[in-house]
């Protein structure tokens, strides 16, 4: 059972929380704790065994925690997700494979594409694919169609697996801290379009990818994880794009694993990741 | 104040320990915890503020812990070390520089070399250098001379900064878990002499270095940290050796930082590193 | 057009070869060259444009090269491969996805498994799957059945994508430098079975994977590429195995890309990789 | 002997150049070649043995190259450098150590500091230190004093080893492509002041360092090399700064090695690095 808590910091929080665990005869398999001193904020993640009644546990925890405490007790055995794509296959295919072999830590309910090029690969894995084109539509109409497709499934998270349209503030506000995006640069470098071209023009010696929660500041949401690979002068924009796909796939896979394992807590515009 | 504890695992340990912290009005700045389930062993490291009487704290902790508990409460404000070297300068010079600028986390009391080539660099930093040659001596005589030089200083740790002689079981037993060595391969690959030649002959695509505590099994002691660098066919043995020095220096520096910060706990032949 | 050559080293080889290119009006887009001085061996890889008659070019090259020269002029537009598997899906699925989206640099002709658990995923991608069980058979019989399945396709390479049976010297000899294996450790550490258990027991701080050509020395063939990931004390054998699958997939994918792009030359037991 | 050439691209350049080598009976130990197709620019680096008259060789090369060719034939056995610092010791100390043990590939002629805190460590290595304060001076006066100190030594390169003053266009123009800086971020992220604070505020999961040639666009000159290290939420600005020093030291050391080995060619605002 995973328990994650954040609240304002004060003396005795760990003792209070772990006393509750002891009273419920829960053994602490692992414990991650962080205090953000500049914000006086306390974060904890506990993996406990065997298990207990979540409501009773939550009630007891509330007695030892400040009023502002946010407590989550492993709400679902497994997350449900909807994936949004455009034309590139690499991130989606990785998700579909893990989903098919039950190693994703979540269930892919559906895939939505603004082109239909990835419909066939979804069909091969018996995953519903919705082709919702953005062409010839006002953005609110386009997004409303997407929302309707999503809301059938009540997913825990939306995964933007190289979805190349910018979502409106209204859309984003409908899924607060539920939208995970993969950006093809080591943010904050190369915000916006064509990061590989920007990287090529600048002559950098490494390229990267960033998985982050989507907020209404483009490419500015809380970062979940980032990785880079070294490159050199011999790679042109096409080569960089190709090399970048490998790191994008790896970074998104890692971010999803962290989120689906309840290892990522968000406060303001930053994450605490207990890995 | 750093508190590190290891003992057999049982329910309620974290609660018991953190209750003691609360009673002493100690705030937990950071907490690392690990349970080795295959050995039923519990490990914890706490960084607490402000401070308390170490003896009183230890006594209270003993009441909530099993009898076998090993408790260390940040025993010294700063560690004292003696460094053993042969001819290569890179690890020693890095240590001397950090020592001189007070960023090592320990004080270098003396350097002992079985050659005198590194005497001058020690002199430049006003660090005592003992030239104790192994030539023409039985090993027990050689080691007894080293011991006498060391024991003037009562160091917390001995650092083998590319000391190229194998120490006898008797010598090692005199400094249990106090001797830190840098080995020039990613152990357990290339145990023994000439790892860079071995790496070259085998045609590996990465080389590494390993910092470990010394035990009486050659190159088999508990590993503190390891890193690697990618290499390619163009590097001959000389090139590998040169490239390797960079990673050796970095790995030893990292290991010393971890040990001097009380982040490394040892159980049987493995380490728990709270970084 | 890719041209790869290896021969004994002598003065003027690059001039001789590039003169031939100039006579055929071939522009050198990229050129990688290596001299193994300890073996007096010369290696070169040229990427030239536009194109020329391969036979005529080869004949001219032979005039400027020593008699022992091995010359390959991009023999096929695309390689053909057969993949051998046991039960683990991760490497195979990655290959099938790249094959389906035509980014593998080779065509998967068939998959052979000694269990049938991966039959379904192959079927979903319309790739023939042969279930050839090793159970209740002498090894020569088992291998003969595999050979027959393979030889229908005349593949350029066999890829052992977590094929967990040791192949006999006879089998290996039938496909010299054509069998590529992924081994789940940073060789030469942890040769043989259960490398993740070995890594756990030893308490290493990094685990890796190695892609290599198969020879009759188990896990001793020429290494194509290797990578590692950092690990820590919190990971048990199951966790290491899971984490290792990510790096195995990445390393095999990278090795196949290098081989299929004609970037890997083999001499004795080592590779020269022009990347 | 190292030969580096850049010029506009055309068919037959490699043949022409290597024919000259053959005529001078020079054996090509290694050869790196690059064509920047978007700029139609050719780059080559040759390491040849034994040696030849540089002027005669250059003349012959000019006959086979376009008029715009820039040819450098290993102009000096060893480079001379002057190092500029402010207060931080880590990059300077690394340079001084390598200089003292003759592994820098260059000779440190002098160190110039706008504070005097690093005077003592220079004195310990018998390297002249000039304390030239910027306080109470107009920038042109300050820079003129620095120039005079530098020009005594006619160095090949100036190394800004954490020199925290912005140099004027006039100063920079006096040393074109001769000034190497270490910037404490993975450029182009976090240009300007306090990159570690910027990194902390943004919540990135990796920090880096960039070595580059200085031009009159702040932090925008040609990048020589970059590296990153992973970080997490537990590190505050002070921790990031401390961790960053390790990577700054490593990146600057690597960049200097590349430049001093004549491995770095510059065209427009980018580098070609033959490593």
TrEMBL record, chains A, B, C, D:
Q: Which reaction does it catalyse?
A: (6R)-10-formyltetrahydrofolate + H2O = (6S)-5,6,7,8-tetrahydrofolate + formate + H(+)
- Organism domain of life: Bacteria
Return the EC number: 3.5.1.10
Q: Which residues form the active site?
A: 219
Does Hydrolase show up as a keyword for this record? Answer: yes
Give GO terms: molecular function aspect only: formyltetrahydrofolate deformylase activity
Instruction: Please give the SUPFAM superfamilies that the UniProt record associates with this protein.
Output: ACT-like, Formyltransferase
Pfam families for the chain: ACT (PF01842), Formyl_trans_N (PF00551)
InterPro entries from the entry?
Answer: ACT-like_dom_sf, ACT_dom, Formyl_transf_N, Formyl_transf_N_sf, PurU, PurU_ACT
Tell me a GO biological process for this protein. 'de novo' IMP biosynthetic process
Per the database record, which ranges form the ACT domain?
A: 2-76
Q: What class of enzyme is it?
A: hydrolase
**Keywords on this record?**
Hydrolase, One-carbon metabolism, Purine biosynthesis
Named in its record, the pathway it takes part in is: Purine metabolism; IMP biosynthesis via de novo pathway; formate from 10-formyl-5,6,7,8-tetrahydrofolate: step 1/1
Functionally, this protein is described as follows: Catalyzes the hydrolysis of 10-formyltetrahydrofolate (formyl-FH4) to formate and tetrahydrofolate (FH4).
Name the protein family: Belongs to the PurU family.
- Protein name (record): Formyltetrahydrofolate deformylase
What taxonomic classification does the UniProt entry list for its organism? Bacteria, Pseudomonadati, Bacteroidota, Sphingobacteriia, Sphingobacteriales
The gene for this chain is purU
């Amino acid at each position: 059972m995973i328990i994650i808590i954040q609240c304002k910091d004060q003396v005795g929080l760990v003792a209070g929380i772990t006393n509750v665990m002891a009273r419920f005869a829960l053994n602490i398999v692992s414990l991650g704790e962080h205090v953000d001193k500049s914000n006086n904020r306390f974060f904890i993640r506990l993996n406990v065994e065997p298990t207990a009644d979540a409501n009773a546990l939550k009630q007891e925890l509330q007695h030892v925690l400040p009023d502002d405490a946010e407590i989550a007790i492993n709400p679902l055995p497994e997350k449900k997700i909807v994936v949004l794509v455009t034309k590139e296959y690499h991130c989606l295919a990785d998700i579909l494979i893990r989903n098919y072999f039950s190693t994703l830590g979540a269930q892919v309910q559906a895939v939505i594409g603004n082109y239909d090029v990835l419909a066939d690969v979804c069909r091969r894995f018996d995953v519903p694919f919705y082709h919702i084109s953005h062409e010839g539509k006002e953005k609110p109409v386009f997004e409303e169609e997407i929302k309707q497709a999503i809301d059938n499934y009540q997913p825990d998270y939306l995964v933007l697996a190289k979805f190349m349209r910018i979502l409106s503030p209204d859309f984003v506000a409908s899924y607060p801290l539920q939208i995970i995006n993969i950006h093809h640069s080591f943010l904050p470098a190369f915000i916006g379009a064509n990061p590989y071209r920007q990287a090529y023009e600048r002559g950098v010696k490494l390229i990267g990818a960033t998985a982050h929660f989507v907020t209404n500041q483009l490419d500015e949401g809380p970062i979940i994880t980032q990785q880079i690979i070294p490159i050199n002068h011999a790679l042109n924009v096409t080569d960089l794009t190709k090399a970048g796909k490998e790191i994008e796939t790896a970074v998104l896979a890692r971010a999803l694993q962290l989120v689906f394992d309840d290892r990522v807590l968000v406060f303001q515009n930053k994450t605490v990741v207990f890995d």
